[in-house]
Amino acid sequence: MKQLLTTHHLVSYRSGQSGASLIEVLVSILLLTVGLLGMAGLAAVSAANNKLAQIRSTSNLLVSDYVDRARANLIGFDSNQYELIDTYAYPSAAVTESGCTNASTDACLPVTMATLDKAQWRNTLRRRLPGGTAFVNTFPNAGGIRTMDIWIMWAEAESTDSFGLSNVYLCPAAAAAPSSVRCMYFRVSL
Q: Is the pTM of this model over 0.85?
């Protein structure tokens, strides 16, 4: 037998909780906001790490190129022609490339070749990295081993390091680089 709902039953049914209260809605909005802010922070850190990985990859290729140039001209390397020990200056124009070319009537001496190698490499740095340049110390025949200390330098858009990576970017003191310049250090043997 079916029981008919009386007015008494309807009143007791409606007096129970049906739906969410305002406090529950506010708490769920708060949790959603915290989660979205966390995801936004994670995306920012991920973008910074991707940029750093790209710069590391580019820097590795640039260092390999310069080392190969020096290795091909050991006489020029042994006479310290591959050193770049200038203070940092934002490269605004291309470095003039003169020296050993096919049209040149001069003999391609090791010093001339090293000058051309440095100019071409500095232009590549300028094109591949924002404000890109380098600081290079060479050690020809230190204990029978030829080595180079290379700092790849580039300019950051902002002068603060918001991700705590400042210890990664130690520039040489002799380069006198401003705080917005970051450096990556490499020590290589020829």
A: no
